[in-house]
Amino acid sequence: MLDAIRRILALMRKELLAILKDPRGRFSILVPPMLQTLIFGYAATFDLNNVPYAVLDQDRSAASRDLLARLDGSGVFRRVANLDRAADVQASINERRALLVIQIGQDFERRLLSSLPADVQVIADGRNSNTAGIALGYVSAVVEAFNADWRAAHDRVSLPLRVTTRAWYNPNLETRWHMIPGMIGTLTLLQTLLLTAMSVAREREQGTFDQLLVTPFRPAEIMAGKALPSMLVGTVQATTILLVAQLWFRIPFAGSFVTLYVGLSLFLLAAVGIGLVVSSVVASMQQAMLFTFVLVMPFVLLSGLITPLSSMPRALQYVTLINPLRYAIDIVHRVYLEGAGLGRLMPDLWPLAVIALVTLSAASWMFRHRLT
Amino acid sequence: MTLAYRSHPRQLSTKVRRVWSLVGKEARQIVRDPSSIAIGVVLPVLLILLFGYGLSLDVRHVPLAIVLEGPSPAATELAASFQLSPYFDVQLLTSMSRAEELMLARQVDGIVRIRPDFARHLSLGDAEVQILVHGTDANRARIIQGYAQGAVGQWAARRAAEGREVSAGPVSLRDRLWFNEANESRYFLVPGLIVLIMTLIGSLLTALVMAREWERGTLEALFVTPVRADEILLGKTLPYFALGMIGLALCLLAAKFLFHVPFRGSVWVLTGVSMLYLLVALGIGLLISSAVKSQFVASQVTMLVTFLPALMLSGFLFDLRSMPAPVRLVTYALPARYYVALLQTVFLAGDIWGVILPNAAVLAGMAAVLLLLTRGATRKKLA
Q1: List of residues 6+ apart from A71 with CB closer than 8 A
Q2: Among A204, B211, B279, B312, which residue has the least CB neighbours within 10 Å?
Q3: What is the number of CB-based contacts under 8 A between chain A and chain B?
Q4: Is the ipTM of this complex over 0.90?
């Protein structure tokens, strides 16, 4: 037993040396994940802060100016044109000069003063309907505020109903709070898979795998020697991204680090298992790379990070059950944002354990199979 | 290749014949190499199916708990307004703590809380409806909030119309979503997908294949043959260009017949601008491979400078205008940004020349510069 551990440690040392000796290897472990986290943190956001809009104000009254001033002052909307004719509306949208056109009819103020309902028409460029929908939501919030103040200022009966909204765990509903913790799982998955698959494939390609076989190492020890360094590197990467999330983006961490790392190590074990299965199938480094790439793409798309799992068709939701990234992202979100403990993570932990068990035993069977 | 060679041995000039035989060799390599098939065929089909059927930003059937702490006709009516909404799958509860438990377990994504004295407060004029959402997925949470407020608003409007106490706000918003009236996220995800597929085939596959030739030294072997540098380049690009166009045709067919995405522009404009983008993508792929000459590095670099930006920084998913200024500046250098603008316009809005001409001009300029650079890079290695 002690001998086995000593042998595994020696193999690990060799693997880590192989990764770290190469300046390109050292570079690719830390720099790309950090860069990607920064880029994703700034770019991957559904929050809008710069919505160009055009106005067709046919009323030109104090009330319409007040409403527009509120839009301009919101910090989100930027007025790019004051249109004079209804015919200009189409061109502003079509040629993408404005995302929204706000149209206020002639009798806007008159209707308001005589307590008649007044309409504001908003036309949105639906070429990206998600962005357009978010922008419309912002407009409606501004109109709500205008209504409340108008009622107060003109002694109208106030609306007998108030709707208060609150969001748990992400009070300002920032996309970044969703994306960056999600990166902890996504980027480590890519790197861990690639590292594991490539390290075996490299030995195969260079013929050193056969040399390993004539040493006293048993197949299980070789596997452990390949798996543990990748997990170690994955943990370091996850920590780097965690630090960027906390120190750079200042996303508050609600949970316990112990819980997070327990969840992550189970996830890394599953990822390494998949990497080892890939490596036992492929013949060359190039194939290892391609297989990893072809695998990671659906893993990421079906993880719930970019589009919600519950919006997927039922059949595909069942497919996501074998996706380790789905559970990892849920674990990170729950620990990071909600502060969940291990008990509440159980629905994520046991599937990961099953995936790890299945892939590792499959890999070990295939290793032995190929060895003899 | 041999077919064409035999059928017109004399008419074809030597140059065309040489290029043609290189194309034939490359085409055979694509067909026989599992990795080319994986990137050129399997991945595009997988992406088309995933994006078309699987991914959606539309929020429907949100599991929602309504907590009725004290039953009253008004409260029941309000709850019914949620039950009738197509956006929600409602669970009626009477205890807030049970609802919070469900939310913690992610069995529901939101809670609407109606207090026990709702009816009395409504008659006094200060009733409150509380909407709680699970904020982890911020985008979805915001949409759910909007829908829930809409459901309450509809209820209020109905009561106002019936002459009861609630009156709607003085200003109401009438919004219209042009080009995508049904608000289907598929309508912009599927056109956007074309960018990803063209990038995969044009840049990633080409970079990998060229880097392999450099790695194995087979390109030097080609250099000693009478084939000239630009002929080699042509022989390399033509098959991948063809593969890219096949990918485009697949996407178009899938968009039209599988996913019923409206197509309001003309196919010719789309084909034209796609060819321009494909040339740019090929140029980048060739340039990267001749600069780094190793498959592993080439794939990493190509991912970082072409595929990830096409996904994140092209306006395909995330709005470019809301990115911080330095990131926005970077996006101007990325060809994907111009192609996404073209695709979304030609698919959903039609042939709007004010968008098509400037964006196509930028792509054409990029293509010209890149191809010249590649030619220079390849010739230098020959000397």
Answers
A1: A53, A77, A79, A102, A139, A142
A2: A204
A3: 307
A4: no
A135 and A38 in a common domain: no
Element (H, E) at B111: strand B110-114
> Does one domain contain both A119 and A32?
no
Task: Verify that A24 and A59 share a domain, yes or no.
Answer: no
| Residue A144 located in a structural domain | yes
Last residue of a domain, one of B127, B161, B195: B161
Spatial contact of A352 and A346, defined as CB atoms under 8 Å apart = no
- Give the residue from A272, A267, A269 showing the smallest Cα distance to A199: A272
- Give the DSSP H or E segment for A265: helix A257-281
Residue B197: inside a domain? yes
A122 and B125 within 8 Å at the Cβ level: the answer is no
How much is the average pLDDT of A64-82?
Answer: 92
B314 touches chain A (CB under 8 A): no
pLDDT tens sequence across A152-174? 787 666 566 677 778 888 888 88
The CATH number of residue A96's host domain is 3.40.1710.10
Task: Say if residue B42 is in the same domain as residue B69.
Answer: no
| Residue B156 in this model has a pLDDT that exceeds 50 | yes
CA-based nearest residue to A258, from A185, A335, A198: A335
pLDDT digits (tens, 9 = 90+) for A34-47: 888 888 888 888 88
CA distance A160 to chain B (A): 4
- B317 interfaces chain A, CB cutoff of 8 Å: yes
Asked if A146 and A182 sit in the same domain, the reply is no
Looking at the structure of chain B, the number of domains it has is 2
- Give the per-residue pLDDT at B277: 95
Contact A177, A249 (CB under 8 A): no
Reported as type and span, the H/E element at residue B46 is helix B43-49
Which of residues 333 through 362 in chain B touch A, CB cutoff 8 A? Answer: 341, 344-345, 348-349, 352, 354-355
Count up the domains in chain A and report the number.
2
Q: Which pLDDT belongs to residue B85?
A: 85
- Domain extent for A329: 2-44+174-371
Domain housing B102: 62-161
Candidates B89, B173, B185, B327: best to mutate against A (most CBs of A within 10 A) is B173
Residues A295 and A148 in one domain: no
Would you place residue A29 in the very low, low, confident or very high pLDDT band (cuts 50, 70, 90)? confident
